[in-house]
Amino acid sequence: MKPQMNCTRYKSTRCKEENVTREIIEIRVNDVKPDRDDVLKTQGIPPGKKPSENLEPLFKRAMELFLELSHPLCIISEISIPEFEVVYNGEGSNEKRTPLDEIFRKAENLALFALTIGDKVSQKIDELFKSNEFALGSILDSVASDGADKAADIVENHFLNLLSNEGKINPSTGILRYSPGYCGWHISGQKKLFEFFHPEDIGITLLDSFIMKPLKSISGVMVAGKKEIHNFEDSYPFCKQCKTHSCRDRIRALFRESNLKI
Amino acid sequence: MDILKEISEYLQQGDNERVSALTKRAVEEEIPPKEILDKALIAGMNIIGEKYRDHEIFLPDVLLAAKAMYAGMDVLKPLFIKEGIPSIGKVVIGTVHGDLHDVGKNLVGIMLKGAGFEVIDLGNNVPPEKFIETAKEENAAVIGMSALLTTTMQVMRRVVELLKEEGLSDRIKTIIGGAPVSVEFAQEIGADAYGYDSSNAVECVKNLIKNVR
């Protein structure tokens, strides 16, 4: 079940020459509290396996640090299919065939998003490693990554609610997010994405290598449409190199969930 | 219990305070620092490495043990000033140019040090030339590269090419790792090894060192 939306919203308009409506969302850090089991999994501890006693105080401290240092912010902007085609094509480096290329053209609504939990957590992780607090640093890193994912779930839910308020969804609607750097969408796609709606305004910058700073940031497109459009096979050539195949879980979850507000 | 064994036991429990105190005591008892290093600290970390490899313990336990090892090393360091800290080999590590993700690379560095290697950590966003320059200057036997993105992993190819161009491939071996990297990619670019996790990376580096001419 995705976390429910509970955040303060701000609205602003503009973007270079074009008139782009953007929304900046401040998410309460308590709403993106990482899940203990998810964090343990990232630490290589399988579900059901009891970790050592040493872990509990570390996990507790990592959570405290996360809640103290995170400041989740997101920016979203609805985008038309032709506009997104330009963003998607980016610098012309995508794989020839990608799931997203086939999915976004069948979308009913699209929105770009970029979110961050801020830079303080990453700074703290660096500090911890430098002061030999390796275990705490590593757990905080997992906690922060999971927190960023939780924030992305909230934003996805927020988009769903926005569309629902506008009467743009029905029981067959499903939303999934896709990010540059994954599933054949080349990471250089970040350039056009940033040019379109300027996540710099919430403190996310893009490096020459298209990595976002702060590191614990996520960007991409949320695709709303019939659930079926998201149901692709993981048989693209690049899928062979993928170690997680996490798309399977996401698609399964989409078909399991029915938290539509209609 | 033998004090060296005791240090090793506490190290495995991640008890840095006890490891530090016992290491001091071992020094006072005039046990040679090299013996404390090999038979207590590295021996303890080797057991930790094996348990981790066999999934008996998990990453946080390894990192707590590493912290305890560093606490013991802090006691020994001043005693090695003249001849330097003994090591079984020198490794230059870094996250490749364009990439800022360095937690995985840090873990490998920690494990390598725990196994008795001298590690020169160049940090993240490291240009290919910097890897080569440093390995030459430091007379390192291995270069370890990490990347988290499909785009930045291409930098690894350049490092391997540069080593070949400079005729250093026999003297300096390469190992790569990171989420998008695979054994196939390592073979494709001509890297000497691929480490699928930090523990495996240590095993690979140990093997590579044997083959350095």
Summarize the structure in words.
The complex is a heterodimer of chains A (262) and B (213). Chain A is α+β, with helices and mostly antiparallel strands. In chain A, the strands form two sheets. In chain A, strands 1-2-3-4-8-5 form a six-stranded antiparallel beta sheet, with helices on both faces. Chain A has a two-stranded antiparallel sheet with strand order 6-7. The longest helix of chain A is centred in the middle third of the chain and has 32 residues. Chain A has eight helices and eight strands. In chain A, strand 1 and strand 2 form a beta hairpin. Chain B is globular and about 50 Å long. By secondary structure, chain B is α/β, with parallel strands linked by helices. Helices cover 55% and strands 10% of the residues of chain B. Chain B is built from nine helices and five strands; from the N terminus they run H-H-H-H-E-H-E-H-E-H-E-H-E-H.
Which strands sit side by side, in order, in the main sheet of chain A? 1-2-3-4-8-5
Percent strand of chain B equals 5-15%
Q: What class do helices, strands and sheet pairing of chain A give?
A: alpha+beta
Shape of chain B: globular
Proportion in helices of chain A: 25-40%
Helix-residue proportion of chain B: 40-55%
Count the beta strands of chain B. Answer: 5
Sheet with the most strands: spatial strand order of chain B: 2-1-3-4-5
End-to-end distance of chain A, in Å?
17 Å
Count the DSSP helices of chain B: 9
Largest sheet of chain B: 5 strands, parallel
Question: What pattern of helices and strands is seen along the backbone of chain B?
Answer: HHHHEHEHEHEHEH
The largest sheet of chain A, given as strand count, sense and whether it forms a barrel, is: 6 strands, antiparallel
pLDDT < 50 stretches of chain A: 1-17
How would you sum up the global shape of chain A?
A: globular
Q: How would you spell out the order of helices and strands of chain A? A: EEHHEHHEHHEHEEEH
Number of helical regions of chain A: 8
Whole-angstrom Rg of chain B: 18 Å
Q: Give the radius of gyration of chain A.
A: 18 Å
The overall average pLDDT of chain A, rounded, is: 88
Query: Beta fraction of the residues of chain A?
Result: 15-25%
